[in-house]
Amino acid sequence: MRDLFLLDPTVTFLNHGSFGATPRVVFETYQRWQLELERQPVEFLGRRHDCLLDDARARLAEYLHVPDVDNLVYVMNATWGVNVVARSIMLQPGDEILSTNHEYGACVNAWHHTCDRTGATWIQADIPLPLPSDEEIVEIVWSRVTPRTKVLYLSHITSSTASTFPVAALCKRAREAGILSVIDGAHAPGQIPLDLAAIDPDIYTGNPHKWLCSPKGSGFLYARPEHHPWMHALVISWGYGDPASAGWGMGAPDAPLLVARHQYQGTRDIAAFLSVPAAIDFQREHDWESVRARCHALAVEAQQRVSDLTGIPAPVPPDHYAQMALCEMPASVDLPTLKRRLYDEHRVEVPVIAWNGRKFIRVSVQGYNTPVDIDTLLSALKAVISTQNVRIDAG
After folding, report:
1. 331 and 310 within one domain
2. How far is CA 143 from CA 47, 100, 168, 170, 184, in A?
3. Each residue of 268-305: pLDDT tens digit?
4. N or C: which end of the chain has fewer CB atoms below 10 A?
5. Which residues constitute the domain of residue 349?
6. Is the dihedral of CA 241, 245, 250, 256 positive or negative?
7. CB 150 within 8 A of CB 93
8. Same domain, 260 and 296
9. What is the pLDDT of residues 146-187, one digit of tens each?
């Protein structure tokens, strides 16, 4: 599938998880929307804006199994969605936000800002590696719940450790305990089948522009209707006050609250949002269930081969990840040097990660990757490690 994407053919690209990659045909759709905007900006933003975005939301809602499209709105990215919640929620001194030690740093910063602003406390449940079972993860997280716990925030698929967490079970417990569940699904859409009706979170935010392969800057925010009134937009614009006062059609008087506040943000390029249906169509046309299965098998192979090279057991078992595999590096490896040499000398693009005093690489496998890419990674790792005086053993 490499010819269907726009990636540099001289780079072994094993880092789809960071920013994604868009297929050529989807990118062309994106550019067509941008051209339509520029040919008649007032027509596009003033008269067609609402209907275009409503149609694009409807396609995404169907894909995510969201029964009511009014509970879903496009935002720039998952971090944006987390910020909407963290900056809107009303907490009191002593209230607790419960999370884990596997969360994405930018979103942790957003919650720390909320704690500084409100006097709430960030509570972290430490989930070890090697990763325990789903049942054990649920119990580890729930053991940190107290009468002061107001928010449960955690990733569906973690960025730092590429681990899939049992979010449905934790959302169910949170609902029963009257705790707000907020799920960061940045890596989930497209990488795993996603059914928000089955997970039933209070709030879920995700990134189609990663594994669903839509253009950059296309995220979404889902929220149950009882939470819409307190969830304020990061930009106060035409969705507040009298929407009809916009004068350009942005802000229909009958727009639902979540959509009115978060969709009507003044002049901006909405082409990435409008291209999400093209990304959904692309994956359906290419039997993406089979593609995901092939990618998972290749990720498992990559993890096993790296483990064989280093002598370090896999930190996350194959049944707890999909297309991203975490591979531990020897403790004596210098991560900045490893990253620089892998790219500069071998043209291998793969993220290196320091987590809890341990060192990893995170291998992403997407439809355009082949076994040759894994061979290249292993050859590059061997070459770099052999010249770093790295001690390789089971520890």
Report:
1. yes
2. 52, 12, 17, 12, 21
3. 999 999 999 999 999 999 999 999 999 999 999 999 99
4. C
5. 287-386
6. positive
7. no
8. no
9. 999 999 999 999 999 999 999 999 999 999 999 999 999 999
